Amino acid sequence: MTVEEILTGEKDNVEYKVDIPPKSETYMRTVVAFANGKGGRLVFGIENDTWKVVGFEKEQVFRKMDAVTNAIYDSCEPKITPSVGIQDFDGKYIIIVDIPAGMQCPYYIKSQGILEGTYIRVAGTTRKAARYQMKELILSAENRSYDQEKTDRELSDEEIETFCERLYQHALELCTSEEGKKSLKRIGKNQLLSFKVIIKENDKYYAANSYQLLDGKLEDYPDAAIQCAVFKRTTRNYFITKKEYKDCIDVEIEQAYAFVLEHIDMGARIEGLARQDIYELPIRSIREMITNSVCHRSYLSPGKIQVAIFDDRIEVTTPGMLDKDISIEQMKTGMSKIRNRGIAEVFSYMNLIEAWGSGIPKIMDEAKEYGLREPELLDRGSDFRMNLFRKKPVFDQYGVVDPRLVAHAKETDETNLGTDETNLGTDETNLETNETDESVTKVQLSREEECLLEAIRKKPEITQKQLHESTGISLATVKRSLPKLQQIGKLKRIGNRRSGKWEVKD
Question: Which of 475, 478, 487 is nearest to 443 (CA)?
């Protein structure tokens, strides 16, 4: 191996030490932290700040290597078996210690005990594990899900029936087609048992944590909420408005989703005879980001889900460390590991989530389709953050055009569609447009549309207000009809807003 190869890799999981400390506990914290996480590497004989190779003499290196191996084996519980090797750099020897990700978490320093001697890695640093983090380590090692753990709440048949009916009604609301509504089946007690949302013991039924969260019984889950805020510009220095939602967790998703839609730009475009509302961002991705956060957050970790809207991005922060078996790059390809299996099963029934692991790849694809910068996924140690980036909206004379159609639009001084001069609220506004596709011309025109075209033929520089006054057609109909006539190729705007004119294309 070269120095470059040794110094490359995930720096969060590599530590360099110029010598082997006399007290092994000073580096044993890092050893158990690596074992409790994704694994890692300790390199002895290299300066930490400069990465200068100091190394050891040949006569020393094997003795030091044995000392490290024995210290790790003797000091840690459960036992950790490292891979230890040496590397020669021009007569200077370094010791490379690779610690594998452990399968029997939590690992701890034996002399300190499990409560005081368990350590984890957070953002490239070694920290003592908090109680909730130790519980997460134990659950993960035993392949158990916290949301499927039994609570003390005993459930009656009537409570379970009411719970199931609420889930069914919400699922019904989320169906996008009549066919989907007809095929949706009611959920029942047996399904909840198979999801481990309820637990049966001695002919009695008990709520699991997932049941409590879905039922809105959040007294024991103070952080099971979503905080939403709109901030001025691109930092958290000044907020414009904020809201916190604490309800059944599936209802929280709808509330947070509605908050975001209320605070992002929306306009409309005309397709044929229909008006279609268009948001500046792919709204399915927004819902997916919030749903993923609610479904995959750690309900043991302190901290609430945060949905923050900035001028340049929407930021969703999910409490809890990422699973050590999944990397950011793997998430982008669709690999996933379900943290809350009971909640995930219910969300799947409700069509809040589709195929496992498909959410992030879909968000990536939709962002690309909208001409947006690739969404950013950040492992911040104690939480996970996803950024969906906005771009400066491009407006036309009747609202925000679908970003997919204007991703490469050219702006000039006269036709800059983002200025106030395109505001349709003024009486004297003339509409301007780009060239339309002349292949769409065979459309039956209404009487009002024929009347408007005739008036424009007589006076090409006519304004909307003048069209209203000369034809008797309402101003609202004029404003709605002119964009349609442009889109179907019957009308074209030549020149700018103030001094331009219309051209009727027969």
Answer: 487
Q: Which of 89, 65, 127, 62 is nearest to 3 (CA)?
A: 89
> In the 8-state DSSP scheme, what is residue 380?
-
Pseudo-torsion of CA 20, 22, 26, 27, nearest 10°? 30
CA atoms within 13 A on the CB side of 290: 28
Dihedral (Cα; 61, 63, 68, 69), 10-degree rounding: 110
Rounded (10°) angle between helices 464-471 and 475-487: 110
- Give φ, ψ of 205 to 5 degrees: -110, 135
Q: Residue 191 and residue 175: Cα distance in Å, rounded?
A: 20
Check if the beta carbon of residue 50 is closer than 8 Å to that of residue 5.
no
Q: What confidence tens digit (pLDDT) does each residue in 342-384 have?
A: 999 999 999 888 756 578 999 999 999 888 999 999 988 889 9
pLDDT tens by residue, 120-134? 998 788 999 999 999
Rounded distance between C-alpha atoms, residue 49 and residue 366, angstroms:
42
